[in-house]
Design a protein that fits this description.
The chain is α+β, with helices and mostly antiparallel strands and about 150 residues long. The chain is about 20% helix and about 45% strand. The protein has 2 helices and 6 strands, in the order H-E-E-H-E-E-E-E. It has helices spanning about 1-10, 55-75; strands at about 20-25, 30-35, 85-95, 100-115, 115-130, 130-145. Strands 1-2-4-5-6-3 form a 6-stranded antiparallel sheet, covered by helices on one side. It is globular and about 45 Å long. The two termini are about 25 Å apart.
C-alpha cells in the first residue's frame, strides 16, 4: 500500500507515480507494480491535448521507483539512510501508445546490485478492461545509485 511505498520511496505528490505493487520476489529480484492511467491525471490535459498519451519519461520514472523500492527494501542494510537516486537509463524503447483509461503493469528484474549502484531490466504491459495485453509497450534498463 501507499504507506509501505512511502517508507522506501522519497517521491511525494505528483511524483509518487507508482500506485501499488502486486508482486515482490525478494530472492528472485523481481517486482511487479501498477500505474493507473486515468484521463484526469495531472499530465493528461497537456500531453497530448485531445489525445492524452502517458509520457515516456513517466514510464521510466515508474520503473525506476519500483526498482528503487526493491533495492531499498531488500538490498540496503537497515539503518542506511542514504537517498536512492536515479543513475540513468539504457536500451530504452517505447513500443506502444499508452492512453487512458488502462492500467500499466511494470515488471522489473534485478540485473546487478552493488553496495552503491544497481541496475534493473524493466518492461511494461497494458491492461485494458481486465485483459492484460501480451505485447510489451515499454522496455529499458534503469540504473540507480545511493547518495
Amino acid at each position: 500500500d501507499r504507506a509501505i511505498l512511502d517508507e522506501y520511496l522519497a517521491q511525494r505528490g505528483t511524483f509518487a507515480v507508482l500506485d501499488h505493487l502486486v508482486h515482490v520476489d525478494e530472492e528472485g529480484g523481481v517486482a511487479v507494480g501498477v500505474k493507473e492511467i486515468r484521463a484526469d491525471d495531472w499530465w493528461a490535459p497537456d500531453h497530448i491535448p485531445g489525445r492524452p498519451m502517458f509520457p515516456g519519461a513517466l514510464m521510466i520514472e515508474t520503473a525506476a521507483q519500483i526498482a528503487s523500492f526493491d533495492y531499498s527494501r531488500f538490498r540496503v542494510e537497515p539503518g542506511d539512510d542514504r537517498f536512492v537516486g536515479f543513475g540513468g537509463v539504457e536500451s530504452c524503447r517505447f513500443r506502444g501508445v499508452v492512453e487512458p483509461p488502462c492500467n500499466l503493469f511494470f515488471v522489473v528484474k534485478l540485473l546487478r546490485a552493488g553496495s552503491r549502484m544497481f541496475k534493473y531490466q524493466a518492461e511494461a504491459y497494458i491492461e485494458r478492461d481486465g485483459v492484460l495485453q501480451p505485447k510489451r509497450c515499454f522496455e529499458a534498463e534503469v540504473l540507480g545509485v545511493l547518495l
